[in-house]
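In response to reviewer comment 3 from the previous cycle, which asked for concrete evidence that the modeling workflow produces usable outputs, we include below a single protein chain processed end to end. The sequence was submitted unchanged, and the resulting structure tokens are shown without manual editing.
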Amino acid sequence: MYKPGDPVVFCKTKQSVRPGPRAKAIDPAPQGDDYTYLVDKFWVVSEVNDGKLTLQTRRGKTHVVDVNDPHIRRPRWWERLWYRNRFPQLGDSSTPLSETAAR
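The workflow returned the following structure tokens.
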């Protein structure tokens, strides 16, 4: 179903005192101290192994998720066009965070 190089949208759950502008499905905490919300992340498939996907972020981080994870989906045609700069390119020459932190 997925192959390396395919763009994907991962809907990540986050929690903070002040949600950002891309936050959706915002729910306040029971005591009202912070909020739980969802943010779409635009990643690319770097590997497919035994029902697991390795996803790469724009900064070079990787995340391993199940192929059937309900938080992952293919981008709609207009998302691929509108957010084309947010999807990383495989083999990009950008420096991963681990190398940047070592400097």
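The chain has a mean pLDDT of 86. We consider this sufficient to address the reviewer's concern, and the full set will be provided in the supplementary archive.
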